Amino acid sequence: MHFSFVEKLGLSVLIGAWLVYGTNFLGSTLVSVTPHAPAMQVAAKEAAGDAGSAAAAAPVDIMPLIAAADPAEGQKVFGKCKACHNADKGGANQVGPNLWNVVGGPHAHSATFTYSSVIAGMHDKTWSYEELNAFLTSPKTYAPGTKMTFAGLSKPQDRAAVIAFLRGQSDSPLPLP
Ligand code: HEC
Q1: What is the model's pTM?
Q2: N or C: which end of the chain has fewer CB within 10 A?
Q3: What is the pLDDT of residues 98-107, one digit of tens each?
Q4: Which among 55, 82, 97 is the end of a domain?
């Protein structure tokens, strides 16, 4: 069978139009289905009584944990920090700065330590309980490029305890939340 040039052209335009229509149709079908998927998953989880995953996704309110924390427990957690930090009054800087007076003080609070530019650049911010909690959760997420090569404390209780301990390592401890 022989097709003329015009017939071939007509045929390919037809096939082309067909493909475009088909792809569009498929695309819109797929896209319109996607928004329902998470809702279905949530519904399924609720049906299964999975409350834990929702709690894990929500940010932790660190304040009540700090108020209830035992500084003595925090001193134990501080064992993980001791490789780099001293927290005594007048203690020397080590790999990291001395941490006396850090809670409630400015970022880069030590005048004698050479900070990374990212922490030095935050000098007008205060090490509040919330800021310390965020930093200690993941130092490099909080301050990309920080010299503190420490993965972070994943347990909120550990962060609360070490913050409660550091709070006491100060000439004028910040009021408890
Ligand atoms: C591997 C060494 C290392 C470990 C372990 C470490 N740090 Fe650090 N830390 C540093 C360094 C270095 C800096 C300075 C960061 C910069 O300049 O970017 C720092 C900075 C800090 C700061 C900010 C000080 C300021 O003056 O702004 C706090 C607070 C802090 N560390 C707390 C802790 C706590 C609490 C732990 C333990 C849970 C800990 N660090 C573990 C090395 C360490």
Answers
A1: 0.74
A2: N
A3: 999 999 999 9
A4: 55
Q: Is the CB of 140 under 6 A from ligand 1?
A: no
167 ligand 1 Cβ < 6 A: no
Residue pointed to by tokens 């995953």: 53
Say what the pLDDT of residue 93 is.
98
Tell me, in angstroms, the distance from the centre of ligand 1 to residue 52's CA: 31
- Give the number of domains in the chain: 2
Cα(172)–Cα(104) distance, rounded to whole angstroms? 9
Statement to judge: residues 41 and 74 lie in one domain: no
Q: Are residues 69 and 46 in the same domain?
A: no
Nearest to 150 by CA among 138, 142, 159, 158: 138
Inside any domain, residue 177:
no
Q: Which domain holds residue 131?
A: 61-168
